[in-house]
Each structure stands twice: as C-alpha cells, then as structure tokens.
Design brief:
Rossmann fold, 5-stranded parallel sheet, 32% helix, 17 helices, Cysteine synthase B, elongated, binds pyridoxal-5'-phosphate
Amino acid sequence: MASPSPLNVFRGHDSLAQYLDPDQNPPLPLVEIPDALNPLRADGVRIFAKMLTALPAHNVKSLPALEMLRSKPKAQHQTIVEASSGSTVLSLAIIARALWGHNDVHAYVTNKKHPDSLRLMKFFGLKTVLYGGLAQQEPSDEKGIMSRLRRMAASEEGVCYPGQYDSDENWKAHERWTGAQIWRQLPEVNVFCATVGTGGCITGTGAHLKAMKPSVRTIGVCSKHGDPVPGPRHLSGFETSPFPWRENIDVFQDVSSADAFRASMQLSRHGLICGPSSGQALCGLIAHLQAAKAAGQLAEYADPTTKEINAVFVCADLPYQYMDLYFQKISKEEFPPTFNENLLYCDLDPYDERNSLSPEDASKLAGGIQPCSAPSSCSCNKKHHHQRQDALPSPPSSSGGSPYYPHPSSTSLPTPPEFPSIGLLDPSEDDYQESNTTIIIDIRPRDAYATAHMHKAWNVPLTPEPEDFFGDALAVEARWREIREVIGGPLWPGAEELQERRVLVMCESGDSSRMMVAMLRARGVEAFAVEGRYGGN
Ligand SMILES: Cc1ncc(COP(=O)(O)O)c(C=O)c1O
C-alpha cells in the first residue's frame, strides 16, 4: 500500500490517479453522530457515520468503479456502458477520465429519472441513453436493460460493460477499503449498517468485518416497495444478486422514503452532509436496535466488557441533487420560513451597475443636459402621450412574478395609490424630445418637478420616494407595483416613441430610477438611471 501523502498534495502526470486511489489517502472520516440524533445513546449505543461522501467523487460507488475499471484495462479503448442513473456512472466517468483520459462512458438511464439527475450526468460529460418501462429493473431479467448490455458487450468488441450488479470487483472494493478502514479505525465495532442497492457495500464491508470479528452484526437497509429512495432497492429486487450476501448480511430492515429524507436532512444540518440513502441507513440501524431493545435483546449486540454497542452506518452520497425531492417528501413546516417572501414575486428583473450613470456621463450621452431655466412655467413636459396606441411589450419572462415560485394570492399588497393626475402643459414648438435620440424621464412628484428639472425632461411622476426603500421588502414591492403601473399607464410614452431612443430616468435618490431601468430593459428599452441628487437643485 502506498503511503498517504501527509499534506494531501498530489502532483505529476498521474496526480489524479493518486488522488482517486484510496491507498494514497488517509482513511475516510468515521464520525460519531451527535447525541441529539441518537435516541439510543442512553442505552450505551454509539453510532458512527462512515463518510464515503469524502471520496473524491463524493459517493459510495467510487470504490467499486475504480476496482471495476482497474480490472478491465481494455476498457480504456472501448465504449463503457453501465445501467445506472447515479453514483456508479458518475464515478465511472470521472475515474475513467482521470486514469486514462477516457471520454466515452454511456449511462443507460430510466426516463423516470428526475431532470436534475439527468443534468448532473451531462455536467459530468456522460452520454445518456434513456429507456422506458420499469425504472428499477431486475439484473437477471432477460428482457431487462442489464441483460441487454451484457449481450451487447459480449457481441461487440468495442464495448465494455463493467456490470456493477454482477462484478465481484464491486463488493471486493468495499472489502478491501471500506471494511479494512473501519476495522482499523474502530476495532470495537459491533454493528455495521448500509443500504442495499447492488449490495456491494454491505456485502464487502460485512465480509471484512466478519472475517476480523465474527460477532459483528450487519443490517442491510432496503426501500419499501413502491416508495423508492435514490440508490437502494427493495428487498425482492435484490435477492437474486450473485454476490455472497447471504453469509454477510444478517438481517434486512426497510425504511420509508420520508424518514430517509428527513434523517439525512438532520444529519446534514449537524454537519454530516449526506443524501437520502444515508438517512435511510441511519433510520434502519436505529429501528433495528430499537426493536431489539423492545424485545429485551439489545445486550446481545454489546461488547461484553464495555457493555457498549458501537455501530457504524454508511453515508453514501451528497444531498444537493435531490433538493426537489426533499421539498416533496418533507412537510413545509419542517423547513425554516423565508422572510420577505413577497420579494420572490416582484422586482425580479436584473439590475446592472453599468446602467447607472453619473450626471456628467448622462449629460455626455444625451449631448448635454441643462437645468430648465424657468421650471414653473416652461413647456418641457410636452403632451407626448395622449394619442398613444402601442404599449411597451411585456418582458419575456419574469416581470409578472418569479420564474421559480408560483404566485401565492395571500402575499399581494393593496394596490398602489391612484396615479396622480397632472395638468399637462401645452405642446412646445421645440421638438427637442422628438428629434433627440435621448429621452429624459423625470419620475419625481409633480411639485418637485415644478421646482426644478432638466430642460425637456418629461415628468412621469411617482409618489414621493420612501427613504432607503430597498431595506423594506413591502416598500420594494409597493414601489415595483407602482412602476409597473406607470410603465403601462397613460403618461408613459408608447413603444413607438421609445423606438431607437435611449431613456434616461431621473429620480430623487437613484433608487426608483434603478428599479425602473431594470424593468424597462426587461421590456427591451435602452434605459439608464442617472445617479445622484437631482442636478444640484
Ligand atoms: C446513493 C446510494 N446509496 C446507496 C447505494 C447502495 O450501494 P450498493 O450498490 O453498494 O448496495 C447506492 C448504489 O448505487 C447509491 O447510489
């Protein structure tokens, strides 16, 4: 066995092969779970999580994948095919690339798989081949996907099928590493528990531990029929496995998916970050020991000297790819609230700092902008909007609400105050706004506009702007609703008037104008917010 790199540095042409080799790494962490998650702690039960998630590919199948590929060196020149929609194909793809620069792994995947998992496979460069029908198929079914792949590899020279369900390299990898590591780390181990998919992990680890200490009991955790958890199978789907599981699995325990997801969330919250099958293993372990306790048999599992029970379960992968499922399986009340939730439905158009201009830059862009010399009696605010036929187009996606969350009717605010009516000034002879490519829109209230404004700025007044309204979620929503109404309202220039025009939006603080610019840009208008207090007036 090569010695682990003490400083965890892997270099040279085979740096990745070293990094992926368990013999060149320290043993994976074995962490006792906190008492809060161990209802049997007072009964002398200590529970340890074996973090296979800390493998470089972050899942339980990295070890079998490595052994299966090492045992088939020809595979580097072949197309590798495997029936798996998760850990095994991901591991095969990553390891084949690291060992050989191999880039041709095909995952045969049920079309019932969650789109996130399909994306994950694409992310890792896997070619995916979908199949219909039963999602979790029997490895021994002659018409099933595994048999088809077996036949394909037998008849086509260029195809390698590692075959996780049949390959002895699968369970032997866990005998060699998972079992051996646990034995070195915790020789006082009494119970080992893992979920059962191919059965490789529990068979191999059980084989090693039982060889070293025959009293070690093993618990294989399965899904309930019709209530799957990603990775493990239900028992009747496993029984035909060719692995030597009968001598290495003492007892089976099934666990519901809701319990599995909830337990992995609790483990993750405590820092043992893991996916649903890991929670399922913990639940199965606890359920089995609780049943033993109820039957007065717990002492049979304990070390005769210390009277303690040291139990190990496997954390098999990470939770992130299953977020949608967590929110389906676990009730809403078990998640903390989101404060300011109304902001999920409004003000979603993207802001871009490049669309905020200093007054100087705005002036340059507009070919010079000057304060109006007679603001209370000028004709800057031309009657530009009355004949308008054409409204601005709606933004392509999100302005009416979140693309991610349905709009809950309960979060709507009262509609904003009536749009203030203003007496419009007479049209001017001056056609500055018509001929200039830049339109200045002043969104301050009417009286502020009358006191001072930029020459030829149009006044499309909003209600007075609350101070620092971005700090108040309800004020943000109110402001957003008001701007939305204004943009679609009677004082707003029509799409035709704005065509091939640049719009400068001016307000008191720059906040409302920034919001309006984001909304205008989402509607295809080339708009800029002018930053800073209003023109020194
Ligand atoms: C997330 C996860 N947990 C558990 C298992 C079961 O492991 P095994 O196939 O060794 O029984 C798998 C198998 O793919 C898995 O992907």
